[in-house]
Amino acid sequence: MSEQHTEEFRSGFVCFVGRPNTGKSTLTNALVGSKIAITSSRPQTTRHTIRGIVHRDHAQLILVDTPGLHRPRTLLGQRLNDLVQDTYSEVDAIGFCIPADEKIGPGDRFILEQVRANAPRTPVVGLVTKIDKVSKQRLMEQLVAVSNLLGGDAEVVPVSAASGEQVEVVVDVFASVLPPGPAFYPDGELTDEPEDTMMAELIREAALEGVHD
């Protein structure tokens, strides 16, 4: 590794936020290149943070996957929200996930308020997810809407975790806002979750998808 490369290498912690079921876990898996976060069509699938590690020549991103933030109606909901808010203050950048096929609503504005209150100096990148589900016209409208929501000169990136479109752009945009620094984890390590925890999560995913009553 050349001296110039070392100076340019960037690393840090990135947290994805958004309403439940906005594609945060699917995007985590796409960026890491392996299934480390469970996904389900049911909201509230993710119950604790999972650190996915994205290795590139110029950067290392440690992805902290959080439960979807929402107005809590139960004690569990409040605990999950507290977990998310604790995460905000400990990361170097935040990715705000908003699906291309859903209009921005009060839930999104509530999340942005929480982000601004808990991490006022942390860079926020808008991620318009599920772009494979909409027309180009609808996508353009959503990009403008998310840009207006975030305001200022916030970056907004359209991405499809399902098709892989723009995934590398997401990596590059986050790398550009992370501080220069060494890699935290060795090459080849994809998560710091213990193996038994990963197995339990995969079993829970199968149950969530397969059990309906």
TrEMBL record:
Alphabetized GO MF terms: GTP binding; ribosomal small subunit binding; rRNA binding
What highest taxon heads this organism's lineage? Bacteria
Q: Where is this region: G4?
A: 129-132
Start and end residues of each stretch annotated as G3: 65-68
Q: Where is this region: G2?
A: 44-48
Q: Which Pfam families match?
A: MMR_HSR1
Keywords for this entry? GTP-binding, Nucleotide-binding
Q: Where is this region: G5?
A: 159-161
Which SUPFAM superfamilies does the entry mention?
P-loop containing nucleoside triphosphate hydrolases
Q: Where is this region: G1?
A: 18-25
Gene Ontology BP, a term: ribosomal small subunit assembly
Name all Era-type G domain ranges: 10-180
GO cellular component terms, alphabetically, are: cytosol
The family annotation for this protein states: Belongs to the TRAFAC class TrmE-Era-EngA-EngB-Septin-like GTPase superfamily. Era GTPase family.
The protein here is known as GTPase Era
Which source organism? Answer: Gordonia rubripertincta
At the highest ranks, the source species' classification is: Bacteria, Bacillati, Actinomycetota, Actinomycetes, Mycobacteriales
